[in-house]
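Could you show me just one protein sequence together with its fold in token form as a worked example?
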Amino acid sequence: MGAYAHLVAFDTQRSGFAHIHPNPAEAAVVPDPVDPVFTFRLMIPRPGRYVIWSQVSLAGREAFAPFWFDVQ
């Protein structure tokens, strides 16, 4: 994967996406495998419903999870 985590954001029409990595200062630090903390910056261009798929690699295992949210 190259990074400990990735996020991919989509709008409901799948008309665009953002591929996001953790902040660079965190990339050199191995995250805690029990209680990891990752910081991302994302600017949402307009109101609507979005989904962010997360991909994280901890202790040699990859995990994927979606997060749905609304932007006012």
Q: What stands out?
A: The longest helix spans residues 24-27. DSSP finds one helix and four strands in the chain.
